[in-house]
Amino acid sequence: MFAFIVRRIIQAIFVMLVISLVGFVIQQQIGDPVRDLVGERVTPAEREVIRDQLGLNDPFYTQYFRFVINACKGDLGLSFFYKKPALEVIVSKAPATIELVLVTALILILVSIPAGIYAAIYPKSWFSRIVMAASTVGVAIPVFLTAIALIYLFAVELNWLPSYGRGETVNLWGWESGFFTWDGLKHLILPSASLSSIMLPLFIRLVRAEMMEVLETEYIKFAWAKGLHRQRVWYVHAFKNTLLPVITVFGVQLGILFAFTILTETVFNWHGMGYMFLEAVERSDTSLLVAYLVVVGVIFVVVNTIVDIVYGFVNPMVRIAGTK
Amino acid sequence: MKKLFVLCLTVLFLFSLGAVAGAKTLKVGLDAGPVSQDPQVQLSGGMLQFSHWVFDPLVRYAQDMSFEPRLAEKWERIDALTMRFYLRKGVKFHSGNPFTAKDVQFTFNRFYESPDFKGLFEPFDGCHIVDDYTVDIKTKKPYALLINMAPYIFPLDSKFYTGKDETGQPKDAVVKIGPSFALKNESGTGAYKVTEWEQGAKYVFDRFADYWDKNCPGNVDKIILTPIKEDATRVAALLSGDVDFISPVPPQDFKRIRSDKKAKMVTVSGGRIITVQLNQKRRAEFKDVRVRQAIVHAINNEGIVKKIMKGTATTAGQQGPKGYLGYDPALVPRYDLKKAKALMKEAGLENGFECTMIAPNNRYVNDEKIAEAMVVMLSKIKIKVNLKTMPKAQYWDEFDAQAADMQLIGWHSDTEDSGNFSEFLTMCPNKETGYGQYNSGNYCNPKIDELTMAAQSETDLKKRTAILQEIEKILYDDAAFVPFHWQNHSYAGKNKVGIKHIVNTMNFPYFGDLVYK
Description:
The structure holds two protein chains of two kinds. Chain A is 75% helix and 2% strand. Chain A is mainly α. Chain B is built from 15 helices and 17 strands. Chain B has helices at residues 2-19, 45-54, 101-110, 146-149, 181-184, 231-239, 254-258, 289-298, 301-308, 337-346, 367-379, 392-400, 419-426, 446-457, 461-478; strands at residues 25-30, 59-61, 67-69, 72-79, 82-87, 124-131, 134-139, 192-198, 202-207, 222-227, 245-247, 263-278, 313-315, 353-360, 383-390, 406-411, 482-494.
């Protein structure tokens, strides 16, 4: 186990270096951050002076090494727009995104599992048909369209829910949370509904397919033959074995969910990491961009490592590569 | 424990709601927010808007473009080089310090520390204190636009910005990227002071109790400004009642807002001209005035304003809009396809040619669509245009590098005067003087240079008007650039918000004067 963790840490460092290098190459293409710092009238000579001060005119490798050395000390540079350390900006924006993803995940679990099971048990019922048809449509509609449609229906026309932002938040030990106020919860509904609309069809279909497959297996037939109550056959014997692949896919999709927050957060003016990322691209806030890539990289490496370790514990058939 | 904590917070929150129940709060949704609290760190529309809320200029433009006294009660020219400003007495800064001539001088000198402003104040010689409430502002040469620069002078509290902050950096340092005292603190004389600042996400301004202007009709106690970048979201926020005021309004939503009973819309003609420059250095064809004229004649300005801008723009045939000194009503758009074809034939190019074009896609209202329309229109005179559009973050480097034969640029005059257009867009590009900095067409006519320089120092209004009009006429006859239209500013708000009286050509909504019934 120890060897595995050490190896993972070395891998992680290597991954970080590659990500930051890629980030640095991209940032050269994204545009000149100084353009966004000054008015349009500022002469090229003045801009050059500022570029010099910011060290943007140094050769690529000098800039990159400076960045790596500072990063080792935990300093990922100053954001050009926020005029604060980039890491601080990212940390302050993270709660918004994490809460959005959490609520979305909750919706996914609470809706997809019952709907999927129902559709598997009663594939011919009209409700199952509607769910299946709706999920096909759901896959096809892009998330920003869903978001705008929801805003127009529930915020503009019906006036039931707020149209943008996070609403009233409560600061709990530095974590700006929208969970503890009625206003904050109301603001969460539309964004999480649109974000879950991308994944919901996939999960309903996945649960349904897995469940149908399990229902055909020998041990379920045996359970029927034993005369077990059908509730028990469905919800205990069959459902348990449906869950394993669902959990695996869920783990992978969670990362993708974070990626989709970029669009959702933009439409809902939700000031999380996704919104910050898109704005940083538009403003060519390159130092923030690179810092974001590095931070997201770290999160992915850490999450994957934990998942690998946990998987080994949960399922003894899976052996962590490299351990005996 | 946690529950108790949340309960306490909820109670506190309810109390705070009760406390402000009688107060008027205005929720504003703009496409972007100010980038810092230092009015001198960046010269941009967003920062000037902010300066008008939190600071006060010496003079400002009224709706009819006349100069309205603010911190300067009156002013007079005492000789060819000097303007004397008599300052208002009894004005207090947010810090409580009194406002005097020293603050004006402090602010004036600080312009030269700012890369954004130093160019603008280059023609000036200095600001001299006469007594506590009188200053003389001098220029190096006679300068016609001395008073036009006074709206840029937003006096800062010299006492407040003197000394060093905890990091040992002088408090008045002009710093582009953090940390600095002036970026995060303010003490102006304006109607609002900053109470909450979440960069790019949320800004809260509270009415300043000791505001000097007792005749000011404004009755809003608190402004909550949220930048909402996405057009559809901004409109939805207004229609759902989550904000009270938005700007800009995307043209595709005009109809929707006008038909809403709870909201209204106001548009104001603006001074920003949208043009396309034809690069004569890259294309020999563009050296021929007949080809340039043919292109101008092929552009249906009227159609673009009607179809793409939904009527919120004014078709243009020259640089400066109506109300500017150089405006000549005879110089109208010239759409005439037959003539355009004839001109191409005359130039020996009836079979046309192929060329490249670049345009930004998030800088001006519908910039990408305008460029696309131009491509279609030019195809009718057999000019095949390969258009590439890109976000503004990448555009300006390409523009400076003159990466394409045709380049789109919009321009608003800093001085609200016609001369500024020529100085940047149509004078011969000259790296040393900086004139013609944005002339990517490389149109170069010594006569224009000569006239523009003459207009700068001509203080006689009549003579100056004649010179500026002559410039416009020459540019029109030479088809020096392709004019499209002047962009309008658009605002929308709930019916109770008195938008009409606070908006102006400069796009600086004066929230201090806003009446919210």
